[in-house]
Structure formats: C-alpha cells, structure tokens
Amino acid sequence: MVKDKYTAVWVSHSSSGDFLKCPRAYYLNNVYKDPMSGHKIKLISPPLALGQVVHEVIESLSVIPVKNRFTDPLMIKFESAWKKISGERGGFKDKDQEYLYKKRGMEMIERVVKNPGPLLNLAVKITMDLPYFWLSEEDNIILCGKIDWLEYLPKSDSVHIIDFKTGKADEKPGSLQLPIYHLLVHHCQKRKVTRASYWYLDKSSGLTEVALPDLQKAKEEVLSIAKEMKLARVLGRFICREKTGCYACRPFEAILRKEAKRVGYDEYNNDVYIIDQKNSSEEEGSKIL
After folding, report:
1. Strands 9-11 and 141-144: what pairing?
2. I want to staple 259 with a disulfide (CB 3.0 to 4.6 A). Which of 27, 221, 254, 277 is the partner?
3. What mean pLDDT comes out for the span 58-87?
4. Is the Cβ–Cβ distance between 219 and 183 less than 8 Å?
5. For the chain, how big is the Rg over CA atoms in Å?
6. What is the pTM of this model?
7. Where does the PD-(D/E)XK endonuclease-like domain start and stop, copy by copy (predicted)?
8. Which domains does the chain have, with CATH numbers?
C-alpha cells in the first residue's frame, strides 16, 4: 500500500482513550463535524482548562536554552495564559469556582519554581509540530502525540520521558499513555529512551519514576486497539455500550441536542462548548536545548 497520511487513520493516546471508554464518544470527539460550521466539536471544563494552562507554561520552557529558561517569571506566563480560558471559556460556572482552580494552578507553578529539578537540565525537543510515525503501513495507521518533556541524559546520550500530571488521581495501571509515548519517542528522534517518570504537580515536588514498557509489546497492544478503531471507522459503527448513553458520550450528545453553549474556538479551529452545569448531571527530528 502506498503511504498516504491524508487517508490514514491517526491514533493518539487521547483518541484511543476515548475509544476504549466509549466508541460513540470517540466518534463525536474525533470524527464528527458540525454540518453547519464544518468544525469538530470539543468540550472544555475547569479541570481541562487548568491542565491546558499549566502544561502550556511549563512546556514552553523546553524550547529555551537552559541558561535562559527561568529568566522570565513563570507566574507572569501563567497569568497571561490564564486570560485565554478565564470565565466561561474555561467552563467555570462562577468567579468562586475559577478562583479555586486558578489557585491550584498557581500552587503548581510555584512548586515548579521552587523545585525545578529536571527542568534545569538539557532537554530534547522533537522538531515536528506533531510527532508521528507509521504504526502500520499495511493497515494505513499513524500513531501521533505530543510528549510533555524529554530530559537529555548526556552520560548515556539518551532521553528521559517526563509527563506532567495536573489532576488529583494517579495514572491508572494499564494505561496506554506510556507505551504510546515510548513508541513515539523511539521513532521520532535518534536517542534511546532509558527512563520515564510522571510528575504529579498537584501534590509532589519531584518525579515518580515508572518502568519503561517493552517496545514490541507496546506496539502489539496499541496496534490491536488501533485496528479496532479503524474497523469502526470503515463500518461507520460507533455504538455506546450503554443503551441510555454513558458518562463519556452524554456531554457530546448534549451538544448535538443544542443543550450546550459554544464559547469559542481552540488552536485547531474546533468549536469549543461548555455544558450548562445547572441543566447537566455530568461530573466534571530533534534538537538539544
């Protein structure tokens, strides 16, 4: 088969996670386009807005040489980034709720400033806007995704995958995130991956190191799910496993029923919506620098 990235099925950690939770949610969040605008639809909520801002601030450091990385105060960057999701654009129901989330974000940034750890070391930046590689040319499937941080380890000329966590819960055992990140980093830059860690910014000043998944097993597991996703797209069959809809797809169904409010667009020109909380039962290549 001739490689054609425009007809390929693109798979990421977030899209595969959507599919595993609910095929209908996967369809509405990753495939469906509003017939009026021609845009995909996305939901924003306070936890998502918080994570978006904190990641933006910290990840922006990776393109700055080490000696200049903390020249500009991170809190100023945080305040600037927060303005983009303030109010209903971040899904906040009122100023009190926004204050609580913003306070959490400021505490995370302050924790990083006081304990920068690996952020003071050399970093590898994959130069692709969206890192990707052909997971299977035969099946026309591409694996893609952005990695939060790659620390360069000069003694071994290798890299250390670091993922920033802004939620309160630890990453669940069996998550596909690390297998996918390991595959991406292995294929999208030349250095070997020798370490991987999570940084739970909401509660920890340091890293939690985790075991690296085996690359072959990771590929087999991710490809198996990717093939299911492709089959669903070919058949046009995206059915929720619960007859009345599940927690994952119900918010998107609310958008289709015109029960959500559009609050703007994201960086990919997707229509961004918030669910009216009063009427909803839902919970919330490379270079070294």
Report:
1. parallel
2. 254
3. 96
4. yes
5. 20
6. 0.92
7. 11-249
8. 9-288 (3.90.320)
